[in-house]
UniProtKB/TrEMBL annotation:
GO terms under biological process: endosome organization; receptor-mediated endocytosis; regulation of early endosome to late endosome transport
Domain DnaJ homologue subfamily C GRV2/DNAJC13 N-terminal, residue spans: 12-800
UniProt protein name: DnaJ homologue subfamily C GRV2/DNAJC13 N-terminal domain-containing protein
GO terms under cellular component: endosome membrane
Length: 801
C-alpha cells in the first residue's frame, strides 16, 4: 500500500467488500489525499489509494447497492477493480464525484449554462448552472464559487413554467422546497440532468409533463412548509448571517421560530429567506472564542453560521423549541460533527454492528491515550438520545446488547482516577459528558446508575471536577447529562427506576447546594443562559408535575426549601429576555407556591412585591397587544404568575386596590365567563390538563376539543408555554402512572387562585362608562405611565444600593 502523508478522513461510509474469499465489513473513507478502507473492529488500515491512482468509482449495473472502484496497481500500469456495496450508494457516488477532478482519469467535462435565479425578494439574479455527473450546481458569475448544489439524489421533480419563457423549477425531496431558474437552454439542461442521474447514479429525476405557473411557485416556494401555519413565528431574534458564499458581508436576518420550523426573514421586508423544519436540526455549535457566534448543524450536513447578542439565550430557545417538536437528539457542543468519523450520512440510522464496534473501541480505550478519539467517534455515530440498538432481542441466537454498555460503564468506574481534567481540553471533557449521556440514555445505562457498584460515585466525581473548572460549556454538558438520569430518554421505561435515580441525585444535599449556588450566581449576574436552562430542566424533573410524582416526598420538600432560600435568584429570571428561561422559572415558581408550606408561598409572594416582579408582570399582562405575537407568550406567563402571587395575598391585593378602581376589580369575583376569543381562554393551561389527565388515567376530553378549535398562532403559543418533555411524552407518561408498581407522590395544591382572572383581563381592555367605573384609553395610559415610572425608580434605587 502506498502511504498517504497527512491524509485526513473527510467523509466515511460503512460498506461491505465483496471478494472471492467472502464478504467483509469495511469503513470506506474519502480523505484529503486519497481513499482509505479500514477494519471497523480495530480501525486498522486494509487498503489505501491516492486519488491520482484511482481511475473511477462507479455504480455497478447489477445491484441497487453495489459499486466498484478501479485503481492502478503499485508501480505498474495494470488496473485492478474491487467491488463493494452500501445502502447509501447514491450518497457515496455523489461524494466520489466531488473528488473526481483529482482522479487518474477525467471522466467528464461539466456543462455550464448562463441562467437567472429567482431570488427570495422576487428579482431575477444572473447565475451560471453547472451540470455535473452527480448534481446541478449554481455558480457565482463573478467569483465562480459554488453557491448551491442540488444533488440528483435529493431532487424530487422538475417542472416547466408555462408563463415564463425558459423557466423551470427544481423541487427537492423531504421538504418540497422549490428553486426557480430561467435559461434559454432549458430543454438541454433537463435532458442532461435526466441522462446523468440515470447513467451515474441510477436515480430518477422526474421531469413533469404538466407545466405550472409562476404564481404556483410563489405560493409553494417553501414546499410543504409554505402555509402560514408553519411560518407564523412565536419567537424572533435579530442576528447576522456569516460565512455564506452568497454575500461578501454579513447580512442582517430575523431568526424566527415557529412551532415546526426555523425561519430566516429579511428584517426590512419581512420576506421569508429560508425555512427549515425543526426536526432536521442535529446540533448547535457554540463558539468558545466568539461569544456572539453559533452554528446550526442540520442532518443533511449543512451548516448555517450566525452572530447575535444574547447568543446563549438564542441557543436555549432553540433547544427548547427543537426538543418540543420531538427531536430529542439536538444538543449544544463546541465542535462540529466530524463526517470523517461517522460511518454514514448524518440523517441515517446506523446499523447495530456500527454501535457494537464503537462500544468495543470505547471500552478498550478508557483511560488510554486514544480515549479522546474513541469518545469522539462514539459520539459521532450514536444519537444524543441514546443507542438505537441497546435492547437484547428475543430469540435463540440473540446478541446480548446490554452487556457492552455495562462493560463501558464498568471501565469508567475502574479508570475514573485516571481522568485528569487538568490535562484534558474543554472539548474533550464536554465530549466525555456527552458520551456518558448517550450511555445512560439507554434503558440498561439508566438502570446501571443505581444498580452498578461505584457508578454513581464515579459520575458524581466527574461532574464535580467539571463544575470546578468554572466553564459555562462544561457546566451545561454536565447538568444536561444529569437530566438524562432524572428523566428517562428511552421508551418502555420503569418509573421505579426513575424514582431510585432521583433519590440518589436529590439525596445529596451538599451537591444540590453546590449546583444551586452556581445557578444562583448565573441568575443574579444575568449570564449563563444555557446553564440556567439546564438547571431549570433539572429542577422541573424534580419539582414540576407530572415528573414530580416520582420524586420522594422528603427529597421534594428538601429541594423546595433550598429553592426558597434562593428566591431572589428565581425572581431574577422573570426579567430575562429569553422566554424559555421565564417559562422554566414560572413552572418552578408555580410548584413552590402551590406545593410549599404556607410560609414558603407567603415568602415568594412578598418577594414578588419587594423585587417589583408583580409590577413588571402587570405591565406586560395589561399592555401587550394581541398583534405583538413574539410577546404574547410572555403575556400568558405573566398572567399565570399574577394569579399565583395574589392568591390569598393581603398586601398584594391592597396594592391592586391602590392601582385600579374598585369597579374593575369587581370582575375578579364575577361568575361570568370571558369570550372564547380572549387570550386566556384561547390558550389552554397545559399543566392543569396534565393533572386532569393523570387523575383520570385517560385522554382529557377538553384537550381533544381544544386541539380542534385553537387557531394557528394560538396553537403555536400554547406549545411554547410548557416544558419540552411534556410536549412530546405526556400521554405515554400517564399510561406509565397507571401501570407502575411504585408509590407516587401525590401533588398538593395548597394555594389556589379563586378569582376570575380571565374575565378581569378581558374587561381591562374594554371601555366602561358605569356609575362605579369610568375606564378608557386615557385611564389605561395613565396606569401604564405610572407603572413605568415606578419600575424605573425601583431599578435606579437598586443600582445605587
Amino acid at each position: 500500500m502506498m502511504a498517504l502523508p497527512d491524509n485526513e478522513d473527510r467523509v466515511c461510509f460503512y460498506v461491505t467488500k465483496h471478494s472471492w474469499k467472502g464478504r467483509y465489513k469495511r469503513i470506506f473513507s474519502f480523505g484529503t489525499s486519497g481513499v482509505t478502507t479500514y477494519n471497523p473492529e480495530s480501525l486498522e488500515i486494509t487498503n489505501r489509494w491516492p486519488y491520482t491512482d484511482i481511475a473511477s468509482i462507479r455504480r455497478a449495473t447489477d445491484n441497487g447497492e453495489k459499486f466498484k472502484i478501479t485503481v492502478k496497481k503499485d508501480k505498474t500500469r495494470k488496473i485492478d477493480t474491487m467491488n463493494f456495496s452500501t445502502e447509501h450508494r447514491s450518497e457515496l457516488i455523489t461524494t466520489a464525484f466531488k473528488y473526481s477532478h483529482l482522479f487518474l482519469e477525467k471522466t467528464h467535462e461539466n456543462q455550464r449554462y448562463e441562467a437567472q435565479k429567482q431570488h427570495w425578494s422576487g428579482i431575477l439574479l444572473p447565475t451560471v448552472l453547472d451540470v455535473t455527473p452527480a448534481s446541478l450546481n449554481q455558480i457565482d458569475v463573478a467569483t465562480h464559487d459554488v453557491l448551491a448544489s442540488y444533488a440528483y439524489k435529493d431532487i424530487e421533480a422538475i417542472f416547466d413554467l408555462n408563463d415564463v419563457p425558459g423557466g423551470f423549477i427544481v423541487t427537492m425531496k423531504v421538504t418540497g422546497r422549490m428553486h426557480m431558474f430561467v435559461t434559454p437552454r432549458r430543454e438541454e439542461i433537463k435532458r442532461k440532468l435526466e441522462e446523468y442521474s440515470q447513467l451515474y447514479l441510477a436515480v430518477d429525476v422526474k421531469l413533469q409533463n404538466k407545466p405550472v405557473t409562476i404564481q404556483y411557485f410563489h405560493e409553494n416556494r417553501l414546499g410543504k412548509y409554505s402555509d402560514d401555519e408553519y411560518a407564523t413565528s412565536t419567537v424572533e431574534f435579530t442576528v447576522l448571517k456569516t460565512d455564506t458564499p452568497r454575500h461578501q458581508d454579513s447580512p442582517p436576518r430575523l431568526l424566527c421560530l415557529s412551532q415546526t420550523c426555523i425561519i430566516e426573514r429579511d428584517p426590512e421586508s419581512y420576506h421569508v429567506v429560508t425555512c427549515r423544519p425543526l426536526v432536521t436540526v442535529m446540533s448547535l455549535i457554540r463558539d468558545e472564542q466568539n461569544p456572539r457566534q453559533f452554528k446550526i448543524e442540520y442532518e443533511d450536513g449543512s451548516l448555517r453560521t450566525y452572530q447575535g447578542a444574547n447568543r446563549d439565550s438564542i441557543l436555549a430557545t432553540l433547544i427548547d423549541c427543537v426538543r418540543g417538536e420531538g427531536n430529542k437528539n439536538v444538543h449544544v457542543k463546541m465542535k462540529e460533527t466530524s463526517r470523517g468519523k461517522r460511518l454514514g450520512p448524518l440523517h441515517s440510522h446506523l446499523e447495530a454492528e456500527v454501535e457494537a464496534a464503537h462500544l468495543k473501541l470505547l471500552r478498550d480505550s478508557i483511560g488510554k491515550k486514544n480515549m479522546a478519539d474513541a469518545v469522539e467517534r462514539f459520539n459521532c455515530n450514536v444519537p444524543y438520545s441514546g443507542l438505537l440498538h441497546s435492547v437484547t432481542q428475543d430469540g435463540l441466537f440473540k446478541d446480548n446488547r446490554e452487556r457492552p454498555i455495562l462493560e463501558v460503564l464498568q471501565a469508567i468506574v475502574r479508570c475514573k482516577e485516571s481522568f485528569d481534567f487538568d490535562t484534558f481540553c474543554d472539548e474533550e471533557i464536554e465530549a466525555l459528558y456527552q458520551c456518558i449521556r448517550r450511555l445512560v440514555a439507554s434503558k440498561i445505562g439508566f438502570q446501571a446508575f443505581t444498580q452498578q457498584p461505584g457508578l454513581r460515585e464515579s459520575l458524581g466525581l466527574l461532574v464535580v471536577r467539571g463544575l470546578n473548572k468554572d466553564s459555562e460549556a462544561l457546566t451545561y454538558a454536565a447538568v444536561d447529562m444529569l437530566c438524562a438520569l432524572m428523566h428517562p430518554m428511552h421508551d418502555d421505561y420503569d418509573l421505579k427506576q426513575e424514582q431510585h435515580n432521583k433519590s440518589s441525585l436529590l439525596g445529596n444535599v451538599n451537591f444540590l447546594n453546590s449546583l444551586l449556588d452556581k445557578w444562583s450566581n448565573y441568575a443574579l449576574s444575568g449570564s449563563g443562559a444555557l446553564v440556567v436552562c439546564a438547571v431549570l430542566d433539572f429542577l422541573t424533573f424534580a419539582l414540576c408535575h407530572p415528573y414530580s410524582e416520582t420524586t420522594e416526598g422528603r427529597n421534594f420538600d428538601s429541594l423546595l426549601e433550598l429553592m426558597t432560600k434562593r428566591g431572589r435568584a428565581l425572581f431574577k429570571h422573570f426579567q430575562h429576555p429569553c422566554l424559555t428561561i421565564v417559562k422554566g422559572a414560572s413552572l418552578i415558581m408555580r410548584a413552590i407556591i402551590e406545593e410549599g408550606e404556607s410560609e414558603v408561598a407567603s415568602h415568594m409572594q412578598e418577594l414578588a412585591l419587594s423585587e417589583s416582579a408583580l409590577l413588571r408582570h402587570l405591565l406586560i399582562a395589561f399592555f401587550t397587544s394581541k398583534t405583538d405575537k413574539p410577546r404574547l407568550g410572555q403575556c400568558r406567563i405573566s398572567r399565570q404568575l399574577i394569579s399565583l402571587w395574589l392568591a390569598n395575598n393581603d398586601n398584594g391585593n391592597l396594592l391592586m386596590q391602590k392601582l385600579l378602581p374598585g369597579g374593575l376589580l369587581a370582575f375578579l369575583d364575577s361568575t361570568d365567563t370571558a369570550p372564547a376569543d380572549d387570550l386566556d381562554n384561547n390558550i389552554r393551561d397545559n399543566l392543569k390538563l396534565a393533572q386532569d389527565h393523570a387523575n383520570k388515567n385517560q385522554r382529557n376530553p377538553q384537550l381533544l376539543a381544544l386541539e380542534k378549535q385553537l387557531k394557528i398562532f394560538e396553537k403555536h403559543l400554547e406549545s411554547t408555554l410548557v416544558h419540552w418533555g411534556a410536549r412530546i411524552g405526556i400521554d405515554k407518561r400517564q399510561d406509565k402512572f397507571k401501570m407502575a408498581p411504585v408509590t407516587l407522590r401525590k401533588s398538593r395544591q395548597k394555594v389556589k387562585s379563586t378569582h376570575n382572572w380571565a374575565l378581569f383581563f378581558y374587561k381591562f381592555n374594554q371601555d366602561h362608562f358605569l356609575p362605579n367605573l369610568i375606564w378608557n384609553h386615557k385611564t389605561r395610559d395613565e396606569l401604564k405611565t405610572a407603572l413605568d415610572k415606578e419600575i424605573k425608580s425601583f431599578d435606579a434605587n437598586r443600582e445605587i444600593s
